[in-house]
Hints:
Order of helices and strands: HHHHHHHHHHH
Number of helices: 11
Oligomer: single chain
Amino acid sequence: LAVTQQSLDPGAAREVQRRIMPLASRVGDLFWEFQSVNVMSMALTQQGEYDEALELIARYEDEAVPEFFRQVWILRREWIAAMRGDPDAPARTMEAMSWYDDLQDPQLRTLLDIGKAVLQGLLGRFETAYVMADAIYESTDTFKPDCLWLLAQAAAWMRDRDRLTATLERHAESMPAGRYGTVSALTQDPAAS
């Protein structure tokens, strides 16, 4: 449930994980406990709660964490550094992503591709971010909301009102009720004026 809510409502995903984590810990299911840390830290990051996300990850650093999750958390730290404006963090994040180059899971590959598109935006390469996100949108059903968000942001930062409007209208039907208005309001950035 938390994973399905991640793209549409990070706050809901966060609350589901708050209930799952203690249960996973009590029954000794380390995989789901680590997965809960993963989903929770992503939800916190999406909501801008960077310190809480980093504190959550730090609590598990000394555990016998599988390498997959350890690499996810390394990536999360670099991602937060990038979002906080560290000029070197996007390059470090790209390097951290290379650990996953051989992944075969299509959903994980799509998530990584979305992350790479976001990084292009953080580097100021908005046209590249837009083109990448548009291609991903066409190839996924699960992550269309993430792609729409990125497309709208990239168009806004390019000050391209026509592309921003066209993007929101083109993808409005794929969004749950109410989401279109939220994305429209949040992308009325000064960069688009």
